[in-house]
Amino acid sequence: MPNSDRYKNLEARLNQLRRYYLPRLIEPTRVYRTQQVDKTMAFTVLAHAEIEQFLEDICEQVAIRTADEWNQAKRISRSTVSLVSFYGETKNFPESLVLTGRPEMTQRIEQAKNNFTDYIHKNNNGVSRSDLIRMLLPVGLSEAEIPLGWPDLMRELHDKRCSFAHHAAGTVTHQLHPHTEHERVKKILEGLKRIDAILTSLRFR
């Protein structure tokens, strides 16, 4: 399955961060100096930010596309069903069959899209398990399509980033190694490649 341009940009950006902040040759057993540990911390924090922004962007794009496909062609996909199921508001049946404004279904899909994009912009707090559930399932990704072990890698990245944000650098250096941080981001990117390909393909279902 093809990947989106947005994924290709993420891949290029993470490779750029790797060149900026990590050693050219990473030695798994080497004990690195404080300067390199600080650079590794920067790599992890910036990689987290790029990955979080990528997920928000692609999920928002799917939600907008889903509403557009309904408005333009009355086309329903599994993204439509998921979006309305998770973010649609509970409403009573209309009191009349006489059309007095926008069609009821159009209103419901548009409201679900707006609720979802509001969540992304105002309430999403990172890439923890609960964040991933609230972003990925509503746009049509099923639990079975999420790569095995990938949510745990995302949780580790989330926890690392939070640890760096709430502790002085000197208290977390023993937990950091360029090899560990780089390998985690590489595996996360592999999972994102699959997820991006599935979400990109949803436009054709």
What's the total count of β strands?
A: 0
Give the structural class: mainly alpha
Largest sheet: none
Uncertain spans, ≥5 residues at pLDDT below 50?
Answer: none
**Helicity, in percent?**
55-70%
Mean pLDDT across residues: 89
Strand content: under 5%
Shape: elongated
- What radius of gyration results from the CA coordinates? 20 Å
- Number of H/I helices: 7
Order of helices and strands: HHHHHHH
**CA-to-CA gap between the ends?**
13 Å
Description:
- With 205 residues, this protein is an all-alpha fold.
- It is 66% helix and 0% strand.
- It is built from 7 helices and no strands.
Task: Using brief descriptors, characterize the structure shown.
205 residues, mainly alpha, 7 helices
Outline:
With 205 residues, the chain is an all-alpha fold. Helix content is 66%, strand content 0%.
Describe how the helices and strands are arranged.
Layout: H1 5-21, H2 34-73, H3 78-87, H4 104-122, H5 129-136, H6 150-166, H7 178-201
Helix pairs in contact: 1-2, 1-7, 2-4, 2-6, 2-7, 3-4, 6-7
